[in-house]
């Protein structure tokens, strides 16, 4: 986190007025200004000999003054799990002149302060991590939420001069990108030796944004319309029987709650990439698979109509099955091929994708339990929700 502020140096004369902003933390500049203003002052007792003409009808007044503000921290920030709390001392510049609380706003959307402590002369802002125009950046290890505190002085009744300069204080909250997907131990109903070992371990699912050639994870989560978003779902199968990963569903929303409204379904019906069925979309699974415990798919960038935010949450329901289990309507990955006007699977027979068109991919009741191995009867224990947050469409807003 950092804080920067700007004061003003004012040079007054009988004819003209010049206002020049300066940084009170920059001692080298202040020292230079002080020398320039006093380099022509004669020693005590000697007559003043100005570098200007003796007949000058104006005087130079330097009101800039070096201030030892290196230890002055007028802005403090607390980063919580879902919100940020910013506390601002009204003596923002350390000059003793208190700023007006109404001249302070948080973020590019201009959120006003939430409370004012008159006794301690502090202004408090409380906002959600995704509110007030904050931006999100994803690094290899962290999620970084950025927002700025703005001070814009109101000249009040005097519109000719101002005595303070605007200031911007950049704020960042860093969160580790760990434990964002959780899983529980496997508890199969049939307990061979291999599954007993697997039950002592954990299945770890992940859903990541990848670069265009799928070689590394994408460092930015910002997209523009016309871009293709590359997703890769994985499951860690160390110390487990061989498993094949599937994506049951994916939905995009404006909030972390997958059941919120508005929403847009990307994958549905146990593995049908329905977003690719639209006339203006080329979204599809990548075939063939990279490996059995990984699944890749691409989605054309989009936005919600009538919404001016730049953040979209995409939540996917991931599951696994034993790699030797036959593919069926519940375990598949199907894309719509517009050239053939039909659904095609990543692997297996095209018959498993027929239900994507009828939108009824549930198994008949008499088949749902009979002859099912333990990994299908315990299917719920193999499924996890994974999510990514997409900050998209930077061409629509200044971010």
TrEMBL record:
- Write out the annotated subcellular location: Secreted, Extracellular space, Extracellular matrix; Zona pellucida; Cell membrane
Domain comment quoted from the record: The ZP domain is involved in the polymerization of the ZP proteins to form the zona pellucida.
List the PANTHER family hit by this protein, alphabetically: ZONA PELLUCIDA SPERM-BINDING PROTEIN 3 (PTHR11576)
Give the top-rank taxon of the lineage listed in the UniProt record for this protein.
Eukaryota
This chain's function reads: Component of the zona pellucida, an extracellular matrix surrounding oocytes which mediates sperm binding, induction of the acrosome reaction and prevents post-fertilization polyspermy. The zona pellucida is composed of 3 to 4 glycoproteins, ZP1, ZP2, ZP3, and ZP4. ZP3 is essential for sperm binding and zona matrix formation.
Provide the primary localization.
Answer: secreted
Q: Which UniProt keywords apply?
A: Cell membrane, Cleavage on pair of basic residues, Disulfide bond, Extracellular matrix, Glycoprotein, Membrane, Secreted, Signal, Transmembrane, Transmembrane helix
Q: Which GO terms describe its molecular function?
A: acrosin binding; structural constituent of egg coat
Signal sequence coordinates: 1-21
A single GO cellular-component term from the record reads: plasma membrane
User: What protein family does this chain belong to?
Assistant: Belongs to the ZP domain family. ZPC subfamily.
An example Gene Ontology biological process = egg coat formation
Q: Which parts of the sequence belong to the ZP domain?
A: 78-341
Name residues in a coiled coil: none
What modifications does the entry list under PTM / processing?
Answer: Proteolytically cleaved before the transmembrane segment to yield the secreted ectodomain incorporated in the zona pellucida.
- What is this protein's record name? Zona pellucida sperm-binding protein 3
Give membrane topology per the record: Single-pass type I membrane protein
Record the organism: Salvator merianae (Argentine black and white tegu)
Gene3D superfamilies from the UniProt entry:
Zona pellucida, ZP-C domain (2.60.40.4100), Zona pellucida, ZP-N domain (2.60.40.3210)
